Amino acid sequence: MKIAVCLNHVPDTASKISVGPDNKSIDTTGITFVVNPYDEFAVEEALKTKEKLGGETVVISLGNDNHKESIKKALAMGIDNAVLLKTDEIYDSLSVAKTLANEIKAQKAEIVFFGKQSVDYDNGVVGQMCAELLGYNSVSVVVALEIEGNKVKAEREIEGGREVVETELPVIITTQKGLNEPRYASLKGIMAAKKKAIEEKAPETVSNYTEVLSMKKPPAKQPGRIIGTDASAVPELIRLLKEEVKVI
Ligand SMILES: Cc1cc2nc3c(=O)[nH]c(=O)nc-3n(C[C@H](O)[C@H](O)[C@H](O)COP(=O)(O)OP(=O)(O)OC[C@H]3O[C@@H](n4cnc5c(N)ncnc54)[C@H](O)[C@@H]3O)c2cc1C
User: Fold this and answer.
1) Which of 64, 84, 88, 183 is the most buried (most CB within 10 A)?
2) What is the CATH number of the domain that holds 173?
3) Which atom of ligand 1 has the smallest separation from the CA of 212?
4) Residue located nearest, by CA, to atom 1 of ligand 1
5) pLDDT per residue as tens, the chain (248 positions)
């Protein structure tokens, strides 16, 4: 059984992002890049699935040389093998999905984990696009998972509750916070990861379907206003909430 995880290398959410001089991309100067937070749940679930069902795990990432940093973290957590689809080109979501789908097919992976969303461009679509391209079943935003033989039972987070879904392998699962608690890499894991090779492959060229025309930061927030410091301020506060902000 081959279990794959698709992992992105993204700006740390604590980074202060500014738009680059081309007004179309972010300025990466001084930004720390990390494993996409939702992909850590995907790595953990791949490891737990292997521990239960056996098989082999592989992490796949599309991007430049810097992605090796996040790939190494997955290897240190316990993933067996790694593939970097190495490119400096700009890929939109469907191009990312097509490229990853080709590699998933080459790996003959039957269970594939994605994060529910990449916190850089936030589209939340690549996993489902890959499922469609490969003809795999897919369950998104998963918070609980059981795989027995060919059967997959997953719980999804929906507004105000949970939905229980059943499907079969091959399957793509996109992971949500709450599914598991990602393990820390042990010292043994970190040492073992140093010996694991990252296979580099040149991805097939794909054409983008969308083009980023411009990026802009949200308007600066208005400074806060203090209406008063005791109960006498309440009527004015209510008036402002009604008439100015229009929230009540
Ligand atoms: C080399 C490179 C340069 C880029 N430069 C730009 C740019 O300058 N401007 C721009 O607008 N976009 C750029 N992109 C696209 C951007 O980096 C996004 O990562 C990509 O579009 C996916 O974002 P999304 O919101 O569609 O992913 P989502 O659909 O939110 O991601 C869902 C899941 O898909 C998987 N995934 C997503 N991306 C990857 C990946 N690359 N490798 C492995 N798994 C992945 C992860 O599991 C993730 O949790 C670039 C992409 C690449 C590969």
Assistant:
1) 84
2) 3.40.50.620
3) 11
4) 63
5) 999 999 999 999 888 889 999 999 889 999 999 999 999 999 999 999 999 999 999 999 999 999 999 999 999 999 999 999 999 998 999 999 999 999 999 999 999 999 999 999 899 999 999 999 999 999 999 999 999 999 999 999 999 999 999 999 999 999 999 999 999 999 999 999 999 999 999 998 888 999 999 999 888 888 888 999 999 999 999 999 999 889 98
Nearest atom of ligand 1 to the alpha carbon of 126: 29
State which residues form the domain around 99: 2-201
- CB of 121 shorter than 6 A to ligand 1: yes
DSSP 63: E
Nearest Cα residue to atom 4 of ligand 1: 90
Give the total number of structural domains in the chain: 1
For residue 82, tell me if it sits in a domain: yes
User: Would 175 be classed as within a structural domain?
Assistant: yes
DSSP assignments along 10-70, one per residue: EE-TTS--EE-TTSSSEE-TTPPEEE-HHHHHHHHHHHHHHHHH--EEEEEEEE-TTHHHH
Q: Within a domain: residue 217?
A: no
Q: What token pair was written down for 200?
A: 């580099």
Question: Is residue 221, in this structure, part of any structural domain at all?
Answer: no
Residue 28, token pair as written in the block? 């990466």
Q: Which atom of ligand 1 is nearest to the CA of 38?
A: 49
